[in-house]
Amino acid sequence: MENFIKKNHADKQLGLGILIVVIGSVLLLRNSGIDIPHWVLSWHTIMLGAGLWVGYRKNFQGSGWLAFTLIGGFFTLRDITFFDFEMSKISVALLLIGLGLWVILKPKQYKPLNNFQNPAEQQEIKS
Length: 127
What we know:
Elements: H1 2-31, H2 43-57, H3 64-79, E1 81-82, E2 85-86, H4 91-105, H5 119-126
Antiparallel strand pairs: 1-2
Helix pairs in contact: 2-3
């Protein structure tokens, strides 16, 4: 149990350290005169990152992280432009493709059929 607590603390410390280094690097590049897109440190990008981080911490179980990720991802895609092409034009299509892939690739959950016979009758049948 003690090893699990130490590993959990080390993971949190590593994640927080990486986050601080990334934010500091982006601010340094922006203040050095390098053109960093405005969406990199916007509220929706932070929400997207927080959703992915919470999902990672919870092994992508539950749906709280998914709400943060979808909302942040939607608004981030609206602001991203590459070569004068707005991502918002294709974001709905990308969302639908991602949803379809998730439905196709999600783990299958097979439930055995319940036999509605009495357990005593099942033993008689097997005998």
